[in-house]
Specification:
The protein is mainly beta. The chain has a single domain (27-210), classed as UDP N-Acetylglucosamine Acyltransferase, domain 1, CATH 2.160.10. 10% of the residues lie in helices and 33% in strands. It has 1 helix and 24 strands. A hairpin with a 4-residue loop joins strand 23 (195-202) and strand 24 (207-210). 25% of the residues are buried.
Length: 219
C-alpha cells in the first residue's frame, strides 16, 4: 500500500504542470507559454491579460474586482451600497513570481516586462474604507483607488506590500519586508516601512551610490 501511494504521488507530481495549464481560465488575451501553478485563485479573468512566457508560482491570487461587496463579503446585518468597478490587470512578458503573489485590482495594475517577484508579494490599487469606527471595515466602501505600475526589469523582494498609486521605476529593487507607500524612481534600491530610496545607480561610476538623507535639524 505504501508503494502504491508513493507511485501515485510521483505520478501526480509529474502531472501537476499539464493539469495547471489545462485548467487555466479564459483570460483577456491568449498568451504563449503561460504557467500559473496550483493552487491558485483567479477572479475576473476576462479583465486580465498577459505577455508571453509568464511563470507564476503556487498560491497566486489574481483578483479583478468588478463589484464590492462580493456575495462572500456582504451581510444583511450591515447593508452597504454596492460599488461597481472596471478593472484591468496587465502582466508583461517573462514576468516570474516564486509563490503567493497576490494582486487585487479595482482600477488598473500594470506589471511591465521581465519583472521578478519573490514570495508573498501583495499589490492592491484600492483600500478598505475606514471612514467610521462604528461599522466593520469589510462593509465600508473601497476608497483611495489609484493605479499601480511595476516598471520593467524590477525586482520585488520577499513579503513586499505595494500600496495604491505607487509606481516602481524600471530596474529598481524593493528590499524584503518593505511597505511601499510612495513611488520609487527608476534604477533605485528602496526598502523599509514605509520604503525609502537607499541607493541610486550612477551611470558614470557604473555602480550603486548610497543616498545621503538631509538632516532637517541642521538644514
Amino acid at each position: 500500500m505504501r508503494g502504491l501511494a508513493v507511485r501515485l504521488g510521483v505520478l501526480l507530481y509529474r502531472l501537476r504542470g499539464p493539469i495547471a495549464r489545462a485548467t487555466l481560465p479564459r483570460f483577456g488575451n491568449d498568451p504563449k507559454n503561460l504557467t500559473i501553478d496550483l493552487p491558485r485563485n483567479i477572479s475576473g479573468a476576462e479583465r486580465i491579460s498577459f505577455g508571453d512566457d509568464v511563470a507564476l508560482g503556487p498560491g497566486t491570487f489574481l483578483i479583478a474586482v468588478t463589484r464590492y461587496p462580493s456575495p462572500k463579503m456582504a451581510s444583511t446585518a450591515f447593508p452597504a451600497e454596492g460599488q461597481v468597478f472596471e478593472p484591468t490587470l496587465r502582466i508583461g512578458n517573462r514576468v516570474t513570481a516564486t509563490a503567493n503573489l497576490q494582486i487585487f485590482v479595482q482600477q488598473s495594475v500594470t506589471v511591465e516586462d521581465d519583472v521578478m517577484f519573490a514570495s508573498n508579494v501583495f499589490l492592491n490599487d484600492g483600500s478598505h474604507g475606514y471612514q467610521t469606527a462604528t461599522v466593520p471595515y469589510k462593509y465600508q466602501p473601497i476608497f483611495r483607488v489609484a493605479p499601480i505600475v511595476v516598471g520593467r526589469g524590477s525586482w520585488i523582494g520577499q513579503n513586499v506590500v505595494i500600496m495604491p498609486g505607487v509606481t516602481i521605476g524600471a530596474y529598481s529593487v524593493i528590499g524584503a519586508n518593505s511597505v511601499v507607500t510612495a513611488s520609487v524612481p527608476p534604477r533605485c534600491i528602496a526598502g523599509g516601512s514605509p520604503a525609502r530610496v537607499l541607493k541610486r545607480w550612477d551611470d558614470r561610476q557604473e555602480c550603486w551610490v548610497r543616498v545621503v538623507e538631509r538632516d532637517e535639524r541642521t538644514a
